[in-house]
Amino acid sequence: MSRALRFVPLALLLAFVGFVAWRLANPADTVIRSRLEGKPVPEFALPPAVPGRETLASGDLRSGKPRLLNIFASWCVPCIAEAPVLGELKARGVAIDGIAIRDRPEDVAAFLKRHGDPYQRIGADMQSSVQMALGSAGVPETFVVDGRGIIRYQHVGPIMPQDVETVLAELERAR
Amino acid sequence: MRRLAALLLLLAAPALADSGLPPAEWADRQLPDARQEAKAKALMEELRCLVCQGQSIADSDAELAGDMRHLVRTRIAAGQSPAEVRRWLVERYGDWVSYKPGLQPTTWPLWLAPLALLGLGAWLARSRLRRRRP
After folding, report:
1. How far off is chain B from A34, nearest CA to CA, in Å?
2. Residue A17 to residue B64: CA distance in whole angstroms
3. Shortest distance, CA B66 to any CA of chain A (angstroms)
4. Which of A36, B26, B70, B129 makes the best surface tag, with the fewest CB within 10 Å?
5. CA distances from A7 to A4, A10, B30, B98 (A)
6. Shortest CB distance from A128 goes to which of B18, B67, B93?
7. How open is the CA angle A133-A136-A141, to the nearest 5 degrees?
8. Which A residues 2-21 touch B at CB under 8 Å?
9. Quick one: pLDDT band at residue B13, thresholds 50, 70, 90?
């Protein structure tokens, strides 16, 4: 074996340690995005999340103009931070529908009373089945759905004030 | 200050990300048909939990993992094959959700590395053995 070849294992080890150190310093992105962007909203029909309120079915999203589909829950803390921003979006003329994940009607009603109610319709997804059909991995998440019911954009996590312009731009693009 | 509060809220989310509602019907119950249950269980061990991300849905206590188990069991009970259920999830969440990688350009190294290492080992052993011969 030549002398140089002797150092190959050491070089491999150093390369491996270097890679591990680099990955530790730059962790991989753990956000799971839906693969349904550009595809139609899957068919669904949900029971109402609050008695007496209009509920949500996939057909309601083919309304001829873009809307937001917000996945939320009364037990979700970031949803509280998001609520006033959704209120502002509604005030700026955005149509918003909601899906409440694993939630009791009385809890949803109390949440809406306390943090504001920006929703036109709200459906209850007791077993996260519609959430999974949409490729959503958590609460809150928001989809921009165009007038033909095609998913055009997904926002993972709460919409914060600095995200409003992006969301409005995506709604405009979906027109 | 408000930014900090928002950031803290984001950090606080995982600790409170539970509805406290009872699990879905088939989240923690076995299917009455033992063969279907065996198929469902094998699939659950190969699907990644979307919340914990390092665990399979068979191992995870997250509520969404429970709902995923419910989805797997009800679909298997309805006659779908494990491959169909897996495909349905991969269509939505990407290959990431499955612990069983397919053979694609991005996974070639994964499948070829063992063969390449075996070949390298054989080559090293051969040159060694040859030298020892008197």
Report:
1. 6
2. 35
3. 9
4. B129
5. 6, 5, 55, 38
6. B67
7. 135
8. none
9. very low
CATH code for residues B24-100:
1.10.8.640
**Confidence (pLDDT) at B133:** 62
In chain A, what are the domains? 58-173 (3.40.30.10)
Q: How many CB atoms lie within 10 A of CB A12?
A: 10
Nearest C-alpha in B relative to A33? B93
Mean pLDDT of B116-122: 95
- Complex ipTM value: 0.86
Cβ–Cβ < 8 Å for A37, A54: no
State both tokens at B134.
């008197």
Instruction: Find chain A residues with C-beta within 8 A of B16's C-beta.
Output: 75-77
Q: What are phi and psi of A99, to 5 degrees?
A: -125, 120
CA distance, residue B5 to nearest chain A CA (Å): 9
Contacts A32 to B, Cβ<8 Å: 50, 53, 93-94, 96-97
Q: Which of A33, A77, A129 sits opposite B16 (nearest CB)?
A: A77
How far apart, in whole angstroms, are the C-alpha atoms of residue A154 and residue A136?
9
Q: Where are the domains of chain B?
A: 24-100, 102-134
Q: What pLDDT is stored for residue B17 in this prediction?
A: 62
Confidence band for B14, pLDDT divided at 50, 70 and 90: very low
Residue type present at position A92 = R
Interface subset of A 96-155, CB within 8 angstroms of B: 101-104, 126-129, 131-135, 137-139
Show the low-confidence residues of chain A (pLDDT under 70). Answer: 1
Pairing of strands A141-145, A67-72: antiparallel
pLDDT 10s digits, B30-61: 999 999 999 999 999 999 999 888 899 999 99
